[in-house]
Amino acid sequence: MSAYQDAIQHLTQLRQQQGDAWAAINPESAARMKLQNRFNTGLDIAKYTAKLMRADMAAYDADSSQYTQSLGCWHGFVGQQKLIAIKKHFGTTKRKYLYLSGWMIAALRSEFGPLPDQSMHEKTAVPALIEELYTFLKQADARELGGLFRELDAANAAGDTAKAAAVQSKIDNFETHVVPIIADIDAGFGNEEATYLLAKKMIEAGACAIQIENQVSDEKQCGHQDGKVTVPHADFLAKINAVRYAFLELGVDDGIIVARTDSLGAGLTKQIAVTKTPGDLGDKYNSFLDGDYISSADDIANGDVVVKANGKLLKPKRLASGLFQFKQGSGVDRVVLDCITSLQHGADLLWIETEKPHIGQIKEMVDRIREVVPGAKLVYNNSPSFNWTLNFRQQVFDAWKAAGKDISAYDRAQLMSADYDTTELAQEADNRIRTFQADAAREAGIFHHLITLPTYHTAALSTDNLAKEYFGAAGMLGYVEGVQRKEIRQGIACVKHQNMSGSDIGDDHKEYFSGEAALKAGGAHNTMNQF
Questions:
Q1: How far is CA 155 from CA 2, 50, 161, 165, 175, in A?
Q2: CA–CA dist 369, 28 (Å, integer)
Q3: How many Å apart are CA 443 and CA 455, to the nearest integer?
Q4: Is 184 a known ligand-binding residue?
Q5: What are residue 181's DSSP bridge partners?
Q6: Structure-model confidence comparison of residues 346 and 277, the more confident one
Q7: Which residues form the catalytic set?
Q8: Which residues are involved in binding Mg(2+) (predicted)?
Q9: Minimal CA–CA distance to 223: which of 102, 395, 378?
Q10: CA-to-CA distance for 483 and 136, rounded, in angstroms?
Q11: I want to staple 446 with a disulfide (CB 3.0 to 4.6 A). Which of 71, 164, 438, 440 is the partner?
C-alpha cells in the first residue's frame, strides 16, 4: 500500500474514533494536506538533507563524475523557480543543491540597504533566508502535488482507470523540491559562542551544511577583495567545534562542516599564535610571519613585538593598522596547512578561495592535502568575480605558446575582445569552460561546484533588457515578446502567476474546509485560464 493510501486509512480510523464531531473531515483531503507538507520543521529538513549530502559524498568518492552543483539564491522565489526548472528539464533534483551566499545577503537582504561583504549585515538575516528558501521549496511541493490530485480526481470522475493509476504512481513516487543548502556563516559573526548560537539558528531553519572561513570576524572581507586577515588555527578550530556541537545538540549527527581558507589571498594576521612547543600549530603559523631575525635587545625599538620562531628571535613586520604581515609567496603552504588541520579537527569538506579558475593550481594544493588526508574533497566557488572568458583564453594562449604553436594572430592582453569570438583559440577556451566542472571534479577533488551570485547577475541583466525595450520604442511588445511569449512557449510554470503564488492550493483548502459553500478564485472568469 502506498504512503497516500496508508495516510487515508489512518485518518479514516482516526475520524471514526472521534465520531460525529469529525463528520465534516474528509480523510483523503487530510491525507493530501499531509503529503503536501512532508517536512514539519526545519530540523526535519536538516536531518533529511544531511543524509542526502552524505550519500552524494560517498557516491563522489566512488566515481568523481558524480559531483554536485548549486547556484546561489537571494530569495525564496528564486530558489523555488530554480528547483522547479531543474525538475522540468532533468526529471530529478539529484545532486543539485542551493547555495546561500553571505555576499548576497549583505548586498540584497540587509535592513541597512546594500552593504559590502564584510559581515556588517544582521546575522539573523542568514537563518531567515534559509527558512524562506525552504518555505518556497515546500510550497513548490504542495503546488505540484495539488495539480496531481486534481488530475487524479478528473481521471476517477471520467472512469479512466489507466490514467488514474498513472497519476497515482506519480503521487507515490513524488520527488520533493527540498534539497541541501550549503549556508555561509562567514567567520561566525563573533567568537566561538556567537558562532555556536548562529549555527543553531541556521540548523533549526534547515541548513545541513555550514561553511565557515578562517578570517577575523571583525575584519572580514569578501574572498575576492584585498585586505583579508586570517586567524591562528586554534581560533578557527574552536569555531569548527562550535558548529559541530550545534549539530549534535539538535540531533543532526551527520551535519556537514565546510572549512574555508582565505590564506591564498590573505597576507595579514591580527594575532601571533600561542605556541607551547616547537613545531606545534601555533609555531607553524608564526613561522610564516614576515620579519627580521635579531640578535640583541638593541635591535628592538619602542613598541616592537618579538617572538621566538625556528629557534631564533623574530621581530615580525607590524603595519600601522597593528596587523602583522606574512611572508610573500607563503600562501600555498598556508592553505595546505589550513586544510589538513581543518580536516584533522572535524571539518568534512574544504573550500579554497582562489584568485582564478585554474585546475592546475587547485590540483597542486589538493594533491598535497591528499598526501596527508586521502579523502579530502572541495567545495569550489565558480565565481562571477573571475573573468572566465579572459582567464580561459589566456590559459589556452599560454598552453599553445608552451607547445610551440603559432600564436602570432593573438594579442594576449586583448583576448576579451569580441573580435576573437569565432577563432580557434576562443572555441577551445569555451570548450574548457564547458568541461571545467567535470575536469576539476576528476582532477582536483572538487565534490561540489557552486556559483555564488548567478541570480544577482541574471536579475540585473534581465531587468536591463526589459527596461530597454518596454520604456523604448517597443513599448508593451518589449514585455510580450521578451518575456510572456517566451514563458508560454518554454513552458515556464510561472506564466500562471496566480497558481504559482498558491491560489489553487488555497481553493483546494477552501473546498476542504467549507465544501460547496467555498468561494474559490479559480473559476471560469479567472484570466489565468488564457494560458
A1: 18, 38, 7, 9, 22
A2: 55
A3: 28
A4: yes
A5: 98
A6: 346
A7: 222
A8: 184
A9: 102
A10: 23
A11: 440
User: What is the amino acid identity at position 326?
Assistant: F
Name all contacts of 54-63 with Cβ < 8 Å and 24+ positions apart.
Answer: 54/254, 54/256, 56/95, 56/447, 57/256, 57/348, 57/349, 57/377, 57/447, 60/377, 60/441, 60/447, 61/375, 61/377
Q: Which residue has the cell 565546510?
A: 258
CA angle 216, 449, 109 (to 5 degrees): 55
**Whole-Å CA distances, 258 to 186, 191, 213, 348, 465:** 11, 18, 8, 6, 37
pLDDT tens figures, 324-361: 999 999 999 999 999 999 999 999 999 999 999 999 99
DSSP per-residue string spanning 456-501: HHHHHHHHHHHHHHHTSTTTHHHHIIIIIHHHHHHT-GGGSHHHHT
Between CA 104 and CA 453 the distance in angstroms is 7
**Please, are residues 353 and 260 in contact by the beta-carbon 8 Å criterion?**
yes
Burial class (CB in 10 A: 0-12, 13-18, 19+), 454: buried
Judge whether 309 and 289 are in contact, CB under 8 Å.
yes
CA distances to 267, 273, 459, 505 from 304, in Å? 20, 16, 51, 69
Residue 224: which pLDDT band, with cuts at 50, 70 and 90? very low
Q: Let me know: does 263 contact 217? Beta carbons within 8 Å.
A: no
Say if CB 254 and CB 51 are below 8 A apart: yes
Q: What is the pLDDT of residues 382-413, one digit of tens each?
A: 999 999 999 999 999 999 999 999 999 999 99
